[in-house]
Design goal:
14-stranded parallel beta sheet, elongated, Pectate Lyase C-like, 5 helices, 548 residues, mainly beta, 55 strands, disordered N terminus
């Protein structure tokens, strides 16, 4: 930007009393402005006394810079400063705090997180509180004192993890809406128990953020859409330390005992897209939420997977939860479903195009139900396991390749309500036949036969039916029907009769009933001409009864 001044002497106009007078005309603009007005466009923390060396306490200067901005909002620039905050600060509505941070993981042999620019160092217990429509952008937010010298071995790396404490960013509070529309963009948050917590706030945006904390993001009690994009929860502080890593190295320092992402208490219509969690005991949690969607999210864990729970979990009264093109690798379970609220159609978890490679059940349904389509299972004890609290589910068009066994059911009730259709099996022990399911019947092809299971309430005269159809010159018509009729359901005295129907003149006509005692009743049989006559005997004296 070129400065065109008002003709006064000196490069910057008249300089008096340590100040600058004069006007400036920005290149390409039409209106000159005073330099004081021009410099006020962006507030710099150093203008309010911040030292910015990471040692001096800049808390008061930082808060004064924030408080200098009016209700209409404005921006505060951190620049290359390292701002040390000893106690919590509050970012008022409509204020954007930004820097020039543009970094990822550091190589400790040549770099140090505490040497990077545009960082805010938080003392233990200090938190940045964001209010409505405020924003943090391009900043490194790191807890002070995680290490004094860069870690060189697994023990020192584990000491860093053990020292995680506090909450880095708090959006909103107990007051509903006080943090709505706040955002965290292109930041890195390191070394806390909780990286970002949003409470009683709506329309939160968290985009392109790197996190290493015990717990990553928690959004609690939100009643309007939240969007979380490209957030990476990963062991940035420990992964590059010598001796740390999967076997034969020490994987423990890369594990985090909490969760990567957790949405709870409604969070209506919230979406997580392209997010990743590595080393977290549970990668993603949806607890008592409504309409939460996970899209292209991935969860991975260390090898061995000691301390792992699952890649994804949906629980409580959650309804309409969906997973699309998500991946869970190495965790004990890929997805745990434990939903207890809402009717079956509401609480069904939708799983579409996902990939699972886990050490135990890839999908564990403790309560609730799932609709799993076009997904792939590569390892684990079972592709899916349905416990006693599970409900009617469906598994359609999936690939089971390398998982030990297909599906397990703790109760016949769930087993015969679950549709299993058009799946592909490779090196898998198949224990459950594919089956079609509706409200009344289950049709399945077992290893030995074709089975129709009637799951209706036990009722006399009712039983499963098999209907055959074919083409006639007049078009497709029913050709035959076999219908079972329950006579007795009493244990030790079970009895069923079987009716036979055939097509005659485009209608099914019952011609025969084979009763449970061997008696054969012929129906709709002409009484004249050759053939059997009522009262004739067949098969060792059994009576044939002809019923007009």
């Amino acid at each position: 930007m070129a400065l065109i001044l008002d003709g006064t002497s000196g490069l910057f106009g008249n300089v008096t009393g340590g100040g600058i007078s004069g006007t400036a005309l920005a290149t390409g603009s039409t209106t000159a402005r005073s330099l004081a007005n021009r410099f006020a466009d962006v507030v710099n923390v150093k203008d309010f006394g911040a030292v910015g060396d990471g040692v001096a306490d800049d808390t008061a200067a930082f808060q004064n810079a924030i408080d200098s901005i009016g209700i209409n909002g404005g921006a505060i620039f951190i620049g290359d400063a390292k701002i040390y905050i000893s106690s919590s600060i509050t970012v008022k509505p409509n204020i954007r705090i930004y820097g020039n941070f543009d970094h990822g993981i550091v190589n400790y042999s040549t770099q140090n997180y505490y040497n990077l620019d545009s960082q805010i160092l938080l003392e233990t217990g200090a938190t940045i509180n964001l209010q409505q429509n405020s924003c943090l952008e391009r900043l490194l937010i790191i807890r002070k004192g995680l290490y004094t010298t860069v870690p060189t071995n697994a023990t020192e790396a584990q000491n860093i993890v053990n020292s995680f404490s506090g909450t880095a960013i708090q959006i909103g509070s107990g007051v509903s809406g006080i943090g709505s529309d706040a955002s965290v963009v292109s930041c890195m948050v390191l070394g806390h128990t909780n990286a970002i917590i949003a409470t009683n706030s709506d329309r939160i945006t968290i985009n392109s953020v790197l996190i290493d904390s015990t717990n990553g993001i928690n959004i609690n009690t939100s009643f309007d859409i939240n969007r979380i994009y490209s957030v990476h929860c990963w062991p940035f502080l420990t992964a590059q330390v010598s001796g740390v890593g999967n076997t034969p190295n020490n994987p423990a320092p890369n594990r985090r005992s909490g969760y990567g992402f957790k949405l709870e208490n409604f969070c209506d219509w919230s979406t997580l897209i392209d997010c990743f969690a590595y080393g977290y005991s549970t990668g993603f949690i949806s607890s008592s939420t409504s309409n939460v969607s996970f899209v292209r999210c991935q969860s991975d864990y260390t090898n061995p997977n000691t301390g792992s729970v699952c890649g994804f979990k949906t629980e409580g009264t959650s309804t309409y939860t969906s997973f699309t093109n998500c991946t869970s690798i190495a965790a004990t379970n890929g997805l745990i479903v434990d939903t207890t609220g809402g009717v079956s159609s509401d609480s069904a978890v939708r799983i579409n195009g996902c990939l699972f490679a886990n050490s135990s059940e890839c999908i564990l349904v403790s309560n609730g139900n799932i609709t799993c389509v076009s997904s792939t299972f590569h390892s684990g004890t079972f592709a899916a396991s349905f416990q006693s609290g599970s409900d009617a589910s469906s598994i359609v068009g999936c690939i089971l390749d390398g998982v030990n066994s297909d599906f397990s059911f703790s109760s016949d009730n769930t087993k015969f309500q679950t549709a299993i259709i058009a799946n592909t099996y490779n090196t898998v022990t198949v224990t459950t036949p594919e089956r079609l399911v509706n409200n009344n019947f289950v049709v399945q092809n077992t290893a030995a036969n074709f089975e129709v299971f009637d799951k209706r309430t036990i009722t006399g005269g009712v039983g499963p039916e098999v209907l055959g159809s074919q083409l006639f010159l007049a078009g497709k018509q029913d050709s035959f029907k076999l219908a079972a009729n329950l006579v007795s359901a009493t244990a030790g005295n079970e009895a069923v009769s079987l009716d036979f129907y055939v097509n005659r003149n485009a209608s099914l006509v019952k011609r025969m009933t084979l009763k449970y005692d061997g008696t054969l009743n012929l129906s709709n049989i002409p009484t004249s001409g050759a053939g059997l006559v009522s009262g004739d005997l067949w098969r060792n004296g059994t009576v044939v009864n002809i019923i007009p």
